[in-house]
Structure to design on (452 residues):
């Protein structure tokens, strides 16, 4: 018995390793490097494309809880991420090249996984997991579209620039984490009001790379908006978003600045740092001018400019069960961002879920739906339930369905918990209760369903 997995990104790699450790043979197909995606730069499996951060590792954070759930479920990539972590305060950020190489080695060393460097242009027969990601090739996307019977939806994602640390001026920049939580892991470039207004003027007038005509109506994902799109919403939008100065004080001066640009470590050698929240579609010359207008980055050596790429995902509420198995065909699963989840952590979690459920299907057990009290269960049930898409038309009162939007881990989708009024008002206490409940329910669920 063999499972064919299309795509060796985060979801596909996790699914392959889950099946392999259960003694199930896998053929893992990856079209890179023979065919590129336009966003990836290497050939290794599980390459991080945009940021190098998986978000918070704090269990009282929605994304942090999902990471801890994956650890309980025996997630393979979360282990490798922790082994290749770089300082990032409360966040789990990785040395992206080291991480990808470690995942690739584990896959290549497994006697149960055959890594095949070729493009798949049709949906194979048999046991299949499609984890081709948001950059699915046109040929395969057409076959998926024909299979689902529904139009794909698309939005744009953007990648932040990376600079060399040796080119940063620490006469102006300083090391700190927000509110001094954890290590001082971020490089901070402070701005006064005049410097910010100059920066904003350059940004708002900077030329952008023109989108192809077919893509002009594509949607941006709200939590990964290009910096120029955020800026277009108002002069102070960035100061309440990626450039917020709150909790960042330069100890040399004791001043909390008007705005702050943060940079996060991008490789294990600590030589490269990316501009946090600076995903962009500006032309490269404009990016250079903008970056060099930031105090401390006047002479920054830019090793990678920001770019944009289109992301594609299916309408999972019509196509998938909450197990990530398709409604039309048993033993065909989807996993990762193509299902309509957003974020690295969520992609890995989708691969984990699909891998577990494919193994159960092969062994004659029913795939499991994780409890909605857990973050994994909440996400998988949210994207496969169309109830939240229902919309009552104001004109005629008819029931219509809104187009789905990509979703990442958040507390709003988790089953509510009974709390007192004071407990509900205390956000930290509330998330502590929710996290504790999730872990307890998941531990019991793992035992009952014999998941490990």
């Amino acid at each position: 018995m063999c499972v064919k997995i299309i795509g060796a990104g985060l979801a596909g790699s996790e699914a392959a390793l889950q099946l392999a450790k259960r003694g199930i043979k896998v053929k893992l197909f990856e079209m890179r490097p023979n065919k590129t995606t336009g966003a990836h730069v290497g050939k290794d499996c599980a390459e991080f494309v945009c940021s190098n951060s998986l978000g918070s590792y704090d269990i009282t954070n929605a994304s942090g809880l999902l990471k801890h759930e994956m650890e309980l479920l025996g997630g393979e990539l979360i282990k490798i991420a922790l082994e290749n972590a770089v300082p990032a305060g409360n966040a789990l950020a990785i040395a992206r090249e080291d991480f990808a190489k470690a995942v690739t080695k584990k896959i290549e060393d497994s006697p149960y996984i055959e890594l095949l460097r070729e493009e798949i242009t049709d949906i194979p027969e048999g046991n299949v997991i499609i984890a081709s990601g948001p950059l699915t090739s046109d040929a395969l996307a057409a076959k998926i579209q024909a299979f689902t019977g529904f139009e794909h939806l698309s939005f744009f994602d953007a990648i932040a620039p990376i600079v060399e640390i040796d080119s940063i001026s620490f006469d102006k920049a300083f090391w700190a984490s927000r509110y001094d939580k954890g290590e001082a892991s971020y490089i901070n470039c402070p701005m006064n009001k005049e410097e910010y207004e100059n920066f904003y003027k350059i940004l708002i007038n900077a030329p952008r790379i023109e989108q192809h005509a077919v893509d002009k109506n594509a949607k941006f994902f709200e939590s990964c908006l290009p910096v120029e799109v955020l800026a277009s919403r108002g002069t102070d939008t960035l100061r309440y978003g990626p450039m917020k100065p709150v909790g960042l004080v330069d100890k040399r001066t004791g001043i909390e600045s008007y705005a702050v640009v943060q940079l996060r470590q991008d490789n294990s050698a600590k030589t490269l740092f990316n501009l946090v929240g600076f995903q962009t579609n500006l032309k490269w010359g404009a990016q250079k001018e903008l970056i060099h207008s930031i105090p401390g980055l006047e002479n920054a050596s830019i090793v990678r400019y920001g770019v944009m790429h289109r992301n594609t995902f299916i309408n999972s509420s019509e196509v998938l069960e909450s197990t990530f198995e398709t409604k039309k065909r048993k033993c065909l699963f989807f996993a990762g961002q193509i299902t309509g989840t957003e974020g690295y952590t969520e992609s890995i979690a989708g691969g984990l879920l699909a891998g577990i459920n494919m193994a159960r299907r092969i062994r004659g057990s029913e795939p499991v739906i994780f409890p909605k009290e857990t973050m994994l269960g909440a996400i998988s049930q949210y994207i496969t339930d169309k109830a939240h898409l229902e919309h009552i038309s104001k004109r005629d009162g008819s029931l219509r369905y809104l187009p789905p939007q990509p979703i990442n881990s958040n507390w709003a989708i988790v089953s509510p918990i009974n709390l007192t009024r004071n407990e509900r008002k205390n956000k930290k206490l509330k998330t502590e209760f929710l996290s504790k409940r999730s872990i307890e329910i998941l531990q019991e669920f793992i035992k009952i369903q014999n998941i490990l």
User: Anything to note?
Assistant: Residues 212-217 have pLDDT under 50 and may be disordered. The radius of gyration is 22 Å. The chain has 13 helices and 21 strands. The chain has two domains: 2-155+310-401, 162-306.
